[in-house]
From TrEMBL:
A GO molecular-function annotation: metal ion binding
Major location (coarse): cytoplasm
Subcellular location: Cytoplasm
Cellular component, GO annotation: cytoplasm
Protein name in the entry: Hemerythrin domain-containing protein
UniProt keyword Iron, yes or no: yes
Length: 172
């Protein structure tokens, strides 16, 4: 799935890709996380005596929300304007990629805490909604990270220059 998305956007103009990321990931994450945090708190409060209760899930989602908000603000205010202007700053890109690695670790914790999205037998509707929402967040964030790392953060290759990168043979 990720590869198909990456291939679809590989030849798109940078500004178009940035707008896609903002609309389909940044805005969506900002909607998803508060809802998931609220649901997680509800499940932890109501089902705290259940052996499969995802204790600590609301705290993890809150931490993820705070980290993502900081990360997305840096992208929106600093990195995306530079990339849209044709500047590919290796330092800020390296920082964002490192943070993507940290987000990936959090996604692993999220998967583990939610039993890979598998609710216990007889789970209430809210618990089911919570796990469906966390699975959607995981998939969205993985696509978001892949799209930035594999497409947006890759500097476009300049066209090969005759005499520098190749020779047609007529120079000799």
């Amino acid at each position: 799935m990720h590869q198909q998305l990456i291939d679809q956007w590989r030849s798109a103009p940078t500004q178009e890709l940035i707008q896609h990321i903002l609309a389909n990931f940044h805005e969506k994450h900002r909607r998803q996380l508060p809802e998931l945090i609220q649901l997680a708190r509800k499940i932890e409060d109501v089902h705290n005596d259940h052996p499969q209760c995802p204790t600590g899930l609301a705290d993890l989602l809150t931490e993820m929300s705070n980290e993502l908000e900081s990360h997305m603000m840096k992208e929106e205010q600093i990195l995306f304007p530079m990339l849209a202007g044709g500047i590919y700053p290796s330092g800020p890109i390296a920082v964002m990629e490192e943070e993507h690695g940290e987000h990936d670790v959090m996604l692993g914790k999220l998967s583990q805490l939610t039993n890979l999205g598998m609710t216990p037998r007889g789970a209430c509707g809210s618990w089911i909604m919570l796990y469906e929402g966390t699975q959607e967040l995981i998939a969205d964030l993985q696509q978001h990270i892949a799209l930035e790392n594999e497409v947006l953060f890759r500097e476009p290759q300049a066209a090969p220059q005759h005499g520098t990168d190749f020779c047609c043979g007529s120079c000799q």
